[in-house]
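Encode chain A's predicted structure.
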Amino acid sequence: MSTERSPAEALVGTILEGGYRIDGLVGEGGMGAVFKARQISMDRIVALKTLSARLADNREFTARFNSCALSIPAPRPGERGEQLQDFLAAVA
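Encoded structure for chain A:
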């Protein structure tokens, strides 16, 4: 059994520029990884999706990644991650 962590797993616990703390890895695949994170300024749980570094220079993949990100509706006032919690429970 390997105890070596993936590059994505190594980010858990990191605070990113912009004020997001990565709390856990939800999953990773060919395009990148999805993390459970906390937006520190709003004290809310968010899903943070990252694009693999090997795809960052590929215009087709970055366009698809950005399109996907823009299609997610912004939370309404008073929502504090209930939908994300449901998503994380379904993925886990």
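The beta strands are 15-16, 20-28, 32-39, 44-51.
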